[in-house]
Amino acid sequence: MSRVRDRTEDFKDVVRQTALSLGYDESKLAAILANFIIHRPRQRSPFTRGALKTLESIGTLEQFMLKHRKDYVDLHRTTEQERDSIEHEVSAFIKACQEQIDVLKNSINDEEASSKGWLGIRADKSNADTIAHKHGVVLSLSERLHSVTSQFDQLRAIRFQDAISRATPRRKFKRITKPTSENTSKSDNLEFREADQFQPEPLKVQQQLLDDETRALQVELTSLLDAVQETETKMVEMSALNHLMATHVLQQAQQIEQLYDQAVEATKNVELGNKELSQAIQRNSSSRTFLILFLFVLTFSILFLDWYS
């Protein structure tokens, strides 16, 4: 086994001599030699920088949700306006992260379209592997964002459920108090009917109008409460449907990724099949040429032997 020799110093001497021959001064030569000791950091691609920025934004969103979780859920810590502000900021965070992921997807699609050659066939195999890796990165970011948004959907469902539970007792109370108020008004009318007979006619008419307005106002408030509760129920259902739709979208993204992997594998199999077909055609042509040459030599040999005999 031959001995290993370190040729680093020889390489440095060659670099120094080449630099001096090209006219480099001492400062440039020192900078070149310093690169052998302290290597420059590798320049990241725009896609990598965008993916890291998106991952950092998702992490910031998750920290923000963990910080304001109790403030958003607990009714005694903050007001409705503050909870609405928290929800608005989280929605803006999610929208910004989704836009960054869409930008990454568009860059991948542009690169994939530019890498295809004539008839849509990929020219470089390494580029196809890089594009597949980028698709995996985007899928991972989408899954991370989906997990964070699902946590916020759960918090939003808790808030809506608390709102419904707070609205339900008031509705029952008013339904109970409505007939009682009518009964009390009827009893009051029965008790003071004789006294009302002695009241002047304008006062009796005014009292009747006030009673009618009170009943109409009670009916209107009850209908408004029913409409509010129905709206809150629909909002909870919409939140659940939104969460379900996001889950199905994530499943479809995973299925699309699997289909993409299968398409890449099928493309490789087609390329291998084309190579095998070309080799079979070459073998067939060579065997045909050999057979024709053999028959020609055999015929010539028979003719020669017949002529010689």
Automatic annotation (TrEMBL):
Keywords: Coiled coil, Membrane, Protein transport, Transmembrane, Transmembrane helix, Transport
SNARE-complex protein Syntaxin-18 N-terminal domain ranges (all copies): 5-86
Compartments where found: Membrane
Location (main, coarse): membrane
Membrane-spanning segments: 290-308
Region spans: Disordered: 177-197
InterPro entries: SNARE, Syntaxin-18_N
Example GO BP: protein transport
Pfam families on file: Syntaxin-18_N
Protein family according to the UniProt entry: Belongs to the syntaxin family.
Name of the protein: SNARE-complex protein Syntaxin-18, N-terminal
Species, as recorded: Trema orientale (Charcoal tree)
